[in-house]
Every structure is written in C-alpha cells, then in structure tokens.
Design brief:
The structure holds two protein chains of two kinds. By secondary structure, chain A is of the alpha+beta class. Chain A has helices spanning 23-34, 39-59, 88-91, 101-104, 113-120; strands at 7-14, 62-69, 73-81, 123-129, 133-141. In chain A, strands 1-2-3-5-4 form a five-stranded antiparallel beta sheet, covered by helices on one side. In chain A, β4 and β5 (133-141) form a beta hairpin. In chain A, α2 runs antiparallel to α5 (113-120). In chain A, 39% of the residues are buried. Chain B has a single domain, classed as HprK N-terminal domain-like (Udp-n-acetylmuramoylalanyl-d-glutamate--2,6- Diaminopimelate Ligase, Chain: A, domain 1, 3-Layer(aba) Sandwich), CATH 3.40.1390. In chain B, 36% of the residues lie in helices and 18% in strands. Chain B contains five helices and five strands. Chain B has a five-stranded mixed beta sheet. The longest helix of chain B is centred in the last third of the chain and has 10 residues, at 78-87. Chain B is globular, with a radius of gyration of 12 Å. The model of chain B has no long low-confidence stretch (mean pLDDT 94). Classes of the chains: A alpha+beta, B alpha/beta. At the A-B interface, α1, α2 and α5 of A face α2 and α3 of B. The complex binds adenosine-5'-triphosphate and magnesium ion (MG). Magnesium ion is lined by residues 51, 54-55, 113 of chain A. Adenosine-5'-triphosphate is lined by residues 51, 55-56, 58-60, 80, 82-85, 91, 96-99, 108-114, 134 of chain A.
C-alpha cells in the first residue's frame, strides 16, 4: 500500500468519559485497516494510541488526538489539559501509577501505559507542564524493515 | 486448541459467537489488567478475565483478541455484549475460577504468550 498524500484527522476526548473511551483509537484502527497497512503497524499504532487515549480519560480533563498518516510513517499527537506529570522519568517506569482505586477496579492503573506506548513506537516523545497538561508524540514507521 | 475444545474444557456457556467453532486459538492471556493484555497478548488469543464492563471488550478489540472467557459465572454487562457483537468478538462464561480455568486449558495443551513465545 502506498500512501500518496497525507491523511489527517483528530478526535476530541473528555476526561472521565469511560463510556466513549477507546472509540477514537478504534476508529483510527479502522482507518489504518482500510488503508491496507501491515497488521503489525496497525496493531502497534492502535495500542499506543489507545494507551494515550486512556491516560487522558483517566488522568486529565480533556484532550485531543491528532493523527497524520504519511507515506513513510504515522504520527499521533495526544495533547491534554490536565494536572501534568511532575516526574516524567518516574512515570515512564513500569508499574508506576497514581490511578485511584476505582480506576484500578476497571482494570486500569497497572502503570504500564507509558512503557507500552514507548515499546510500540519507533519514536516516542512526552512533554508535560504541571498544572497545564501533557503531550505525547508517537511515530510509527510504515515501511517494512525499518523496525 | 479449537474454540470448540476451549468451550468444552471450560464447560462454558456461549453468550455470543462470531467465529467458526473449529477456529484454532493459539494463545491465551489471563488477566484483569488492561495494559497487561495490551502488552503481553498476541493477536487471535483467548482472554480469560473477571472484568465484565464494556472497557474490556474495547481493549480486547485493540489487542485483536478473538474470544473472551469470563470466569466465576461473571456475566458481561449488556453494553459489553453489544460492543462484542459490533466488533465480532466471541464471549463465553464459565463457572470455573481463574485458577481452575487456566489449569484445565493448560492440561489440554493450550499455552500462553509471553512465556512460550518470548
Ligand atoms: N495524560 C496524563 N496526565 C497526567 N498524568 C499522567 C498522564 N499520563 C500519565 N500520567 C501519570 O503517569 C503515571 C503512569 O502512566 P501509565 O500510563 O504508565 O500508567 P497508568 O495510566 O497509571 O496505568 P495503566 O496505563 O497501566 O492503566 C500515571 O499513573 C499518572 O500519574
Ligand atoms: Mg495509562
């Protein structure tokens, strides 16, 4: 599959909205599937986006997912308004989570989301300002052999 | 292991089925942690879980799970069943505990990523 022009779009996310949580990532997954991209590329993009989406739902107030699908790679930026992260290095560690009990009862809060995003990305960046919000940037290469 | 054999081994009740019952399922992930499922499962696996809310089905969709077995007679919520229908993920319920469900499937030869596929 060769993508000639970039395909772009965005989804709005509302913090705490567990009813609709995951719909954006599911839609992005459908778009990538329709484009006929490699299964593994689709899977990695879907997982990384979903973890980022869930972090906005769980930890932030509101956010936006921007995606652009280019010939060489998929870029996903998830931007939120929220508490931000004080110590990013700590937050990136497997098992570190500040999720409250009621979130853990739903199966979230293992502290694996950020490590999962990084693992599934070819490039991963995270930026955060305490009291303002967090931005993650996920890049996944489309061309086979690059990973 | 075929889906048919999984259902028989778990003495499970089928809530919703979208696949050929003879479909081979090669791996299993038993967890109540969504990020663990996303991290450790491989596509076309069976998920064994005690969580019943729609979020589980949503996560299963992202993780390319083929079927979900709910343990200890836990019934998936109505919205979870509806979402599974839309996404074509099969749902079964077993009276067995997590331990016994996994043990029985293991004895019958089903194995789990990542231990055996690292
Ligand atoms: N968008 C965000 N806004 C504010 N804090 C965040 C955000 N994303 C992550 N964090 C902080 O970083 C911690 C680790 O995030 P991570 O996604 O790895 O784990 P988790 O969300 O707590 O659990 P899991 O992802 O396994 O369900 C969170 O518990 C939270 O404190
Ligand atoms: Mg998370």
């Amino acid at each position: 599959m060769i993508i000639k022009n970039s395909i772009e779009g965005s989804f709005h996310l509302t913090g705490g909205d567990f009813t609709n949580a995951g719909i954006a990532s599911s839609e992005l997954k459908s778009i990538l599937t329709e484009l006929g991209l490699d299964d593994n590329v689709i899977r990695r993009a879907a997982i990384a986006t979903f973890e980022a989406e869930m972090n906005v739902i769980i930890h932030a107030i509101a956010g936006t997912i921007y995606y652009s699908i280019m010939p060489e790679h998929i870029k996903i930026i998830v931007n939120d308004m929220g508490p931000g992260i004080e110590d990013i290095e700590l937050a990136m560690q497997e098992g570190y989570s500040t999720a409250p009990d009621w979130v853990r009862e739903m199966g979230w809060g293992a502290g694996m989301g950020l490590p999962n995003m990084k693992k599934n990305s070819d490039e991963f960046k995270i930026d955060s300002v305490v009291g303002e919000g967090t931005t993650v940037e996920i890049i996944i290469n489309i061309k086979q052999g690059l990973r | 292991m075929t889906f048919r054999k999984i259902i028989a081994t778990l003495e499970a009740e089928v809530i919703f089925n979208s696949i050929d019952i003879e479909t081979e399922i090669y791996s299993v992930c038993s967890t109540d942690l969504m990020s663990d499922l996303l991290r450790f499962s491989i596509p076309e696996s069976l998920l064994i879980t005690g969580l019943t809310q729609p979020q589980v089905v949503r996560t299963a969709e992202i993780a390319d799970v083929t079927a979900i077995a709910f343990i200890q007679d836990k019934r998936p919520e109505k919205e979870a069943i509806e979402l599974a229908r839309q996404k074509g993920i099969s749902l079964v319920v077993t009276r067995l505990s997590m331990f016994t469900a996994c043990g029985k499937l293991y004895v019958e030869g089903l194995r789990s990523f990542p231990e055996d596929n690292k």
